[in-house]
Amino acid sequence: MAADDPLRFGLVEVRIGQRQLLVDGKLVPIGARAFDVLALLVERRGRVVSKHELMDLVWAGVFVEENNLQVQISALRKRLGMHAIVTIPGRGYQFTLEPDSRPTQSASIEVSPRVRHGNLPDALPDFSLSEATGIRQRLAAILAADATGYSRLMAADERSTMAALDAARAVFRGRIEAHQGRLIDMAGDSVLAVFETAIGAVNSALAVQEALSIADSAVAEDRRMRFRIGVHLGDVIEKTDGTVYGDGVNIAARLEGMAEPGGIAVSEAVHGSLRGKVSANFEDQGEQRLKNILEPVRWYHLRAFDAATEAPTSVVAPAAKRTPAMVSNKPSIAVLPLTNMSGDPKQEYLADGISEDLTTALSRFGWLFVIARNSAFTYKGRAVDVRQVGRELGVQYILEGSVRRAGDRVRISAQLVDAIADGCIWAEQFDRKTADIFELQDDIVGRIAATVAPEITSAQIERARTKRPNTLNAWDHYLRALAAYHRITEEDIKAAIPLLEQAIDLEPEFANAYALLAQCHLKMGQHGWVKPVRQAYETSRRIAEKAVRVGPSSAEAHQALALVLILVGEAERAITVSRRAIELNPNYAEGQMVLGLALVFCGDLEGCLTACHQAQRSNPRDSRASSRLYDAMGHAYFMLGDYETAIEVSKKGLNEAPSLYGALVTLACSCAQLGRKDEARRYVDELLRLIPRYTLRALRRHPLFVNRELIERLVDSMRLAGLPE
């Protein structure tokens, strides 16, 4: 059987090449990760697949909790039946369905009942069309629109809101017809229309937003009804009654959810067909995975040109325009009130307390916009659609969860959801004893906050990676530089520097960009990638001090300055600065990590390990900072004489960052002390390959350690390992 041939197991059909799952002839919605898990189990049917094998292959190169695999297995069992995938205790999972020996027939998939775009089915399948069905497939441009904050407006003034909605509907109807479009549906606060051409749909959308903007200019800001509009050009299924279905409709609806209030989002298909044909600017937002759409979709914000200036402008009324790029492009999150699952209303205080503390903890991350507690708590006790919440609050991410207390134990579940793509980014469950409820609350809040922030950063980096260079804003430049910085190669560090300089040009008070730029110059000096080295350190220090001046409340700026101070021989001052970073954001794991480095170089070895273990406990998932963490711990264990543990943790650091020279130093010293001189020499050779100027003389001149006894122990050990004078 060819790789692309479907595999049939009774009523279940798996199409590996097309990444589709059918049950009883019907296309079943399934997430990308779940399908990857299914494909592996199907390909290895007949044997047990271990959890480690599944996680290594499905989440290659990414550290995830086992809970993520369990979530995908649970999702598959819901679709295939509980016995399709069995758990083999202590070993893994096995796919148990028997393959069908009959030739697979192309299934004719049922047509779903008519739906409006605001209440789409989980997936709209392909159809086997025939003349007898009365259904035809064609290319069309779809316009989907939805009002933002409609429920809030209705709750405040129902009569005025209905009048505003009727007026908006009249605008849509007139502009759609004026551009040769056909109105499909106006159910509730939504609009769905079909056009023969993309230019007709886009010009209609621009005209609608312009007319609504003018009408809103005399309305109070909090009473304005703004619409998001999505436009896509693609295949649709059209019935004889004019109803349309298919991915074309689905994608337009998903794009509408990504548009700004009063804005327009269009797909790559629309952009490609209209380039140079409309008076508007397309701002590339990169590729986005959309719910139940197999392939990522590249999309754009559409900005109308100002007739007088020929500059792109928002189509919303002047008073509603977004403020500077860094503000509007910062990632944003709402912490929804956790659900009390205990069955005891008296436990409500615990769920509310954790929700409120999470809001406060996340707001300590200056680069993250966090919706106020009062706004988020309006959703308390309500079954919510995260996409709708995201639209109403104007946020990209939602943190939600539950609290269940029984006796002296409490279980807290949390998940981070992308409100635009409607996908789970991270999920975890915490089980604790309730001996001290306040200590428990602080611990859980710290763990969640310290994990969620890096998860959001990683998601944002992936989004920025797919955007075209001429559409990058300051935040995008920073994210691209951050990804390059953590690869720690000469090429990547050199590429990160101009990206950060561009970010600062666009946003001169961008403290985090200054902080990262300082660390890039520090890396250049550390590795000898620039001459003279002293100049790199001076530049790094100057920029780090500028970061603190422009961002006095930025934990990242203080962390960067502390790191620079350590590497220019001022570890004692670095302790003070890194402790300030932790005061500014107690959940910032990198602040604890840099404190650990500063403490070890000052000779406080136990204090170093305490700080490092705190950083590790706060966020065990963030591999971007773990190399420095292992570096500091390796130094501490070596100086304490625990050479085997020093080797173990330093190898972990080297695995995260192959050019981590501090780990190479610890490995060489530890192996030499254990009498493993050949192994020690190999680490010295690698160290000299990375930093040819590294000698015992250089080590004595710049030991980093402050304590004289520790300096001598380091020099003697490196001499024993074979480092030249």
Layout of strands and helices, then pairs:
Elements: E1 7-9, E2 12-15, E3 20-23, E4 26-27, H1 32-43, H2 51-58, H3 66-80, E5 85-88, E6 92-95, E7 135-148, H4 150-156, H5 158-178, E8 181-185, E9 190-195, H6 198-216, E10 226-239, E11 244-245, H7 247-258, E12 264-267, H8 268-274, E13 280-288, E14 297-305, E15 312-313, H9 325-328, E16 332-335, E17 339-340, H10 348-363, E18 369-370, H11 373-376, H12 386-393, E19 397-406, E20 409-418, E21 423-433, H13 437-465, H14 474-485, H15 490-506, H16 511-526, H17 533-550, H18 555-567, H19 571-584, H20 589-601, H21 605-618, H22 623-639, H23 643-656, H24 661-673, H25 677-690, H26 696-701, H27 708-721
Parallel strand pairs: 10-12, 16-18, 16-19, 17-19
Antiparallel strand pairs: 1-2, 2-3, 3-4, 5-6, 7-9, 7-10, 8-9, 10-11, 12-14, 13-14, 14-15, 19-20, 20-21
Helix pairs in contact: 1-3, 4-5, 5-6, 10-13, 13-14, 14-15, 14-16, 15-16, 16-17, 16-18, 17-18, 18-19, 18-20, 19-20, 20-21, 20-22, 21-22, 22-23, 22-24, 23-24, 24-25, 24-27
3D structure, described in words:
- Residues 141-256 form the Guanylate cyclase domain.
- Residues 4-97 bind DNA.
- Residues 4-97 form the OmpR/PhoB-type domain.
- This protein is of the alpha+beta class and 725 residues long.
- Strands 7, 8, 9, 10, 11, 12, 13, 14 and 15 form a nine-stranded mixed beta sheet that branches. Strands 16, 17, 18, 19, 20 and 21 form a six-stranded mixed beta sheet that branches. It has a four-stranded antiparallel beta sheet with strand order 1-2-3-4, covered by helices on one side.
- Mean pLDDT is 80; it is low at 102-133 and 306-328.
